[in-house]
Amino acid sequence: MAGTPILHLDGISKAFGPVAANQDISISLARGEVLALLGENGAGKTTLMNILFGHYMPDAGRVRVDGRDLTLGRPRDAIGAGVGMVHQHFTLAPNLTVLENVMTGTESLFAPASRTRAARARLAELAERFGLAVDPDARVSALSVGERQRVEILKALYNRARILILDEPTAVLTRPEAERLFATLRGMAGQGLSIIFISHKLHEVLSAADRVVVLRGGRVVAERATVATSREELAELMVGRRVTRPVRGAGTPGEVIVRARGVTAGVPGATRLHGVDFALRAGEVLGIIGVSGNGQTTLAQLLSGLARADAGEVTLLGRDATGLTPRALVGMGVGRIPEDRNTEGAVGEFPLWQNAVLERIGDPRFARRGLVRRAAARAFCGKVIERFDLRGGTPDTPTRQLSGGNMQKLIFGRNLWDAPRLLIAAQPTRGLDEGAIAAVHAEILAARAKGCGVILISEDLDEVLALADRAQAIVRGRLSPPVATDRLDARRLGLMMAGEWQGLDDAV
Amino acid sequence: MRFERRQKVSPLWLVGAPVAAMALALAIAGVLIALAGAPVLEAYGRILTGAFGSRLSATETLTRATPLIFTGLAAAVAFRAQVWNIGAEGQLYAGALAVVALGAATPAGLPPALLIPALMAAGAVAGMVLLLVPVFLRLRFGVDEVVTTLLLNFIVLLFVSLAVEGFLRDPLAFGWPQSVPVAEEAMLPQIVPRSRLHAGLLVAVLAALAVFVVNRATVFGLQSRAAGLNAAAARFSGVPIGRTLLLVACLSGGLAGLAGAVEVLGVKGYVSTDLSPGFGYSGIVVAMLAALNPIGVIFAALFVATMFVGADGMSRALDVPSFIADVTVSLALLTMLVALFFTSYRVRR
């Protein structure tokens, strides 16, 4: 790894309004090195990489590649200097082929003809050399997420990138896919490329990087060789204090409160469910684990009163779920945590108090004769804010000003205040930082201890292992048989998520 | 240059930005007046005296503002729930037509205290029906209501033309294409004697207050706003989106229908194809100028009416084309939209 330095970030500072996203950050990267940039949401990782790539103009500081100063704020200059970026949200055109996507932007608009043949040969050569096999003539819309990511990397390599930046590259991958990606990245580093990847997952930082730079609050708080640090140390550095995620204790499952038999259902734009069976008891957590896009959305909508089963039956708290509206569910004591808190969980322009009561506006506590009882609604919101330690808002604050973690506290708070009997939590910690994850986990376990049954739909293995009593994998709209999580480890769960549950003999 | 959402909007911005926007619009229009060779300040002075300089002109301005308040409210109510009702013009004519059809033959024995509200209600219902159809088509089949409501305007206007040339034609109008008049006792009382200003203005102001209360205090107001701002969140929260939007259509179409009813019962007494000089379309401008606030609609309608009534007088005195009123109102709309943008966003390099 100890090659010559290829990249220097020197004293980078950048503020957005009153928020200092980056403060005097200096980092260097050696040739052939894999560097991880570790930090929570809002630590400034993505801002820093966007400055390096020329998307943002820093307030101060400079970037040098091979000892030459980069013109800042110019992506073209960064690309020309050999910096390639793979964004978290891919920037491919789905209606074009792989080859066309890779070539986009590399040829002059006024060239008489596109030099497809040469490009095809080069793409094949790159794919071969770095082990990134893709069909150059496939349309991007037909590719899996992992394949699209490979195309993004190939695109950067095609632009002669020597420094590759990957923003949260594993956010959308299964664990086997992620392991394969990191093997590829190591191979690329071995051939002299330098790589920076952004992450907030400790295990992948430790296993894939040579060196890790920890950012917190826009500053570099530590720099460690991965061989000389530990998971615990990194976690503490990242959060700034000791954070431990709670783990469930022994539970006392009660009667069955949810039962689904042979359920087939579909919602527009999401994977259909095919003949799904599951059951949930009071006081237990059932984990539905899977890579997103395998039918979780349909399942969450079905259980939240937004979709109907085409076949099979679902019973919730003793009632047939067909015909249960969201309001009816809320009235029966079903708490619902939506999959996407920003679009489904709250109206961003509304003040907090309106979002606190919108799904309970049929409740006589909050409306009488068609009139909203503002005082009662405000008071309810104030109590939720206090009880769930929601920071950065009063009942009158516009909801969009909340951080993701605080918005999730609002959503949990409005659902848990009335001690629900059933909680449907879809991706409850997606995009949250470590501190907020611990808080959400604690709330889920507290609800379980009070006898609430929880269906936890998640793509986070550690989360399911820590919280769920039993787990079922969801793959292409089908559910595996349930397995007690005591008998599972991350590897086995990972296999289940990949669809390999034949011969599961310990179904419970 | 980038735009960032403001974390906190200071009250100074909320008041200052619209005022600055109006000032800027008047300044730009001033340049045009100067180009037309007229003294700018005198021109604006003449617009003001033309609109408020005498009892007659003041009542005329208020009369002109009355239907604009209704159509402005119609647009504000609909846009707030993201129902793009561009059809207030058609709904206005539908309301007017309903009033004339029912009010022409004196309904036996009804006292004015019952007759007038009944006719106004009929006008409102006609407007409602005309908007319910496009909104239903959108909910059921995803038909874009911008297109349907806009095109219905022309259909309704042609239907009015058919009516006033045919089955509602006034035989005593010397061949003018106008309908039979409504009965004398059905007309709205004047509130200033020897002027055209009628009680419809009071109804319009009451309607604005009512809409304000509905928006602010009712479950329907909360739900319609949620449905408009974020349909996914509204659906997740169990807001009955279809029912809510149909109710919004009733309210919006009803208000536009009232504009037509009141214009017939208060001013004209009959319907013709020139009953409205584009009140329905101007209502959209009024609503945007008011940032969809129902109380603001009253003032925005007054501003627009002032410009149009005042510009006539100014035009006669100073030989500046009265189109300057259209230009000024349009400029005000543009500057106001920019100002509203800058109350929520700031510029960052």
UniProtKB/TrEMBL annotation, chain A:
<protein>
    <submittedName>
        <fullName>ATP-binding cassette domain-containing protein</fullName>
    </submittedName>
</protein>
<dbReference type="InterPro" id="IPR027417">
    <property type="entry name" value="P-loop_NTPase"/>
</dbReference>
<dbReference type="InterPro" id="IPR003593">
    <property type="entry name" value="AAA+_ATPase"/>
</dbReference>
<dbReference type="GO" id="GO:0005524">
    <property type="term" value="F:ATP binding"/>
</dbReference>
<keyword id="KW-0472">Membrane</keyword>
<keyword id="KW-0762">Sugar transport</keyword>
<feature type="domain" description="ABC transporter">
    <location>
        <begin position="7"/>
        <end position="242"/>
    </location>
</feature>
<dbReference type="Pfam" id="PF00005">
    <property type="entry name" value="ABC_tran"/>
</dbReference>
<dbReference type="InterPro" id="IPR050107">
    <property type="entry name" value="ABC_carbohydrate_import_ATPase"/>
</dbReference>
<dbReference type="GO" id="GO:0005886">
    <property type="term" value="C:plasma membrane"/>
</dbReference>
<feature type="domain" description="ABC transporter">
    <location>
        <begin position="258"/>
        <end position="501"/>
    </location>
</feature>
<keyword id="KW-0813">Transport</keyword>
<keyword id="KW-0547">Nucleotide-binding</keyword>
<dbReference type="GO" id="GO:0016887">
    <property type="term" value="F:ATP hydrolysis activity"/>
</dbReference>
<dbReference type="InterPro" id="IPR017871">
    <property type="entry name" value="ABC_transporter-like_CS"/>
</dbReference>
<keyword id="KW-1278">Translocase</keyword>
<keyword id="KW-1003">Cell membrane</keyword>
<dbReference type="InterPro" id="IPR003439">
    <property type="entry name" value="ABC_transporter-like_ATP-bd"/>
</dbReference>
<keyword id="KW-0067">ATP-binding</keyword>
<keyword id="KW-0677">Repeat</keyword>
Automatic annotation (TrEMBL), chain B:
<feature type="transmembrane region" description="Helical">
    <location>
        <begin position="149"/>
        <end position="168"/>
    </location>
</feature>
<dbReference type="GO" id="GO:0005886">
    <property type="term" value="C:plasma membrane"/>
</dbReference>
<feature type="transmembrane region" description="Helical">
    <location>
        <begin position="279"/>
        <end position="311"/>
    </location>
</feature>
<feature type="transmembrane region" description="Helical">
    <location>
        <begin position="197"/>
        <end position="215"/>
    </location>
</feature>
<feature type="transmembrane region" description="Helical">
    <location>
        <begin position="91"/>
        <end position="110"/>
    </location>
</feature>
<dbReference type="GO" id="GO:0022857">
    <property type="term" value="F:transmembrane transporter activity"/>
</dbReference>
<keyword id="KW-1003">Cell membrane</keyword>
<feature type="transmembrane region" description="Helical">
    <location>
        <begin position="116"/>
        <end position="137"/>
    </location>
</feature>
<dbReference type="Pfam" id="PF02653">
    <property type="entry name" value="BPD_transp_2"/>
</dbReference>
<feature type="transmembrane region" description="Helical">
    <location>
        <begin position="245"/>
        <end position="267"/>
    </location>
</feature>
<keyword id="KW-0812">Transmembrane</keyword>
<feature type="transmembrane region" description="Helical">
    <location>
        <begin position="12"/>
        <end position="41"/>
    </location>
</feature>
<keyword id="KW-1133">Transmembrane helix</keyword>
<feature type="transmembrane region" description="Helical">
    <location>
        <begin position="61"/>
        <end position="79"/>
    </location>
</feature>
<feature type="transmembrane region" description="Helical">
    <location>
        <begin position="323"/>
        <end position="345"/>
    </location>
</feature>
<protein>
    <submittedName>
        <fullName>ABC transporter permease</fullName>
    </submittedName>
</protein>
<dbReference type="InterPro" id="IPR001851">
    <property type="entry name" value="ABC_transp_permease"/>
</dbReference>
<keyword id="KW-0472">Membrane</keyword>
